[in-house]
Amino acid sequence: MNANQIINMVVRVVMRRVIGKGVNAGIDAVSKRRGKSGDGDEGGPDTGKTAKRAKQAMRATRRFGRF
Q1: Domain range holding 2?
Q2: Structure pTM?
Q3: Chain centroid, CA 57 distance in Å
Q4: Is residue 58 part of a domain?
Q5: Calpha distance 43→45 (Å, rounded)
Q6: CA distance 6 to 14
Q7: φ and ψ at residue 37, rounded to 5 degrees
Q8: 44-53 residue pLDDT tens
Q9: 3-state per-residue secondary structure call for 8-44
Q10: How far from 5 is each of 11, 13, 16, 18, 56, CA to CA, in Å?
Q11: How many distinct structural domains can be found in the chain?
Q12: Quick one: what percent of the chain has pLDDT higher than 90?
């Protein structure tokens, strides 16, 4: 191995770590901003009621489909 290969290897390792940390920081920043704006998946106060109605509708559809 010559000096050029060793330098390239060290630079690749350092760059991989730096780029990885930058990507993680960017993703964290986007996820924090998304949580503040309310665009998340937290739904409104009637989310449970809506899910219950959807399940009931699916059951009714299955029952009607048998006849």
Answers
A1: 1-37
A2: 0.46
A3: 30
A4: no
A5: 7
A6: 12
A7: -80, -15
A8: 666 788 888 8
A9: HHHHHHHHHHHHHHHHHHHHHHHHHHHHHHCCCCCCC
A10: 10, 12, 16, 20, 66
A11: 1
A12: 34
